[in-house]
Amino acid sequence: MEKPEKVLITAMKNEGPYILEWVAHHKVLGFDRIIVYTNDCTDGTNQILRRLQDLGHVEFHTNRVGTGGIHRSALRQARRLPVVKDAKWIYVGDADEFLNIHVENNRVDDLIEATPGVDVISIPWKIFSNSGRHVMRDTLVTRQFYDCELDFEQGGAGRRFVKSLFRQGDFYLRYGLHNPHPRPELQAGVFRSVPGGHATEPAPFGNHVAPPFGFEVAQINHYAVRSTQAYLAKRSRGRANHSSQTLGTEYWDRWNRGGAKDETILRYKDEVDAVLEEFRADDRLRRLHRRAFRWHKALINDLLKLPEYDELYQKLLEKPAVDFVAKDRGVRERLSAGAPSSSDENRTES
Fold first, then answer.
1. Share of the chain above pLDDT 70, in %
2. Using CA atoms, how far apart are residues 253 and 323, in angstroms rounded to an integer?
3. DSSP character for 106?
């Protein structure tokens, strides 16, 4: 078997209805291997991934959660895998994120070619709202949600979280959810930039970038809330990196960002559909997907019978997408004045 050049690593919990689309999309982008770690799944996620593994589409592992939480545990375990050690490039992403490349043939290789001479390519998020969709439907995420946050030039956020595609090497202390962390004694020789080679900088790196973001080369479509009903299921599941945080209106107001329209991800439509057709041709995989969707719908129905969830749902139904969040205002003002963007660099979000 040929050694993979581009490996994608992710951690999941109860993402059953979304797995087939997400895997299909990233196969189209050119990832040679997709490695998935899961923990405590009850919606059929594990069964879907096992079947995808049997069919040769993913490599599935149970996440032994230890020090540092779910994502750090998964990344520690993944780093020890021979397939990861042998890879040329590593990318760490989540199930609600879709890498979207705008140059040449829209593949990972094109992103690498457009950003030469660096070890880490940090691709900025573009946040998508629920696009006014409240009911969870068995429809592809990338075909439902097009309302997104404003560009910086339109008044949008002055800093963006990133996820990174990075060159494999022994100069990293550990892999991070947003960036790899170079060894202190080697970090001066490790360089990163946003897509296209803008703002090249040596390590250490923060979890955000300031303009220019490099959106003309690539972005990550981040569907942080999906539909309103899906958000209730996300609240029930809890957050991987902030297990003590209860998702309510504050999180919704921060991440349900809209005001602009972006349909560029539809460039992959025909190719993704072809991969999905292959997946659905497998009777077992098709049944497992439908079962996971029904599980989520049943969960949502049960949650809406609880006063706290019904009250939250009614509040969210009345909330429009936000085109600006208050904490971005100070960042914009500092950038406009020529000062660097200050940020809580060690925080992780999703």
1. 90
2. 10
3. S
Q: Which amino acid is at 251?
A: Y
Q: Is the separation of the CB atoms in 165 and 179 below 8 Å?
A: no
Is 342 contained in some domain? no
Q: In the chain, at which residue ranges do the beta strands (DSSP E only) sit?
A: 6-12, 33-38, 59-62, 89-92, 97-101, 120-127, 147-149, 160-167, 172-174, 181-182, 191-193, 201-202, 208-209, 218-222, 259-261
CA atoms within 13 A on the CB side of 299: 21
Closest CA to 29 of 47, 12, 8: 8
Range of the domain at 249: 6-336
Are 44 and 15 contacting, i.e. CB atoms less than 8 angstroms apart? no
Residue 20 host element (H or E) = helix 19-29
Give me the number of domains the chain comprises: 1
Whether 305 is covered by a domain: the verdict is yes
pLDDT tens digits for range 103-154: 999 999 999 999 999 999 999 999 999 999 999 999 999 999 999 999 988 8
pTM for the full predicted model: 0.93
Task: Name the helix (H) or strand (E) containing 297.
Answer: helix 283-303
Per-residue pLDDT tens for 148-207?
999 988 888 888 999 999 999 999 999 999 999 999 999 899 999 999 987 677 877 889
1 found inside a domain: no
Determine, yes or no, domain membership for 349.
no
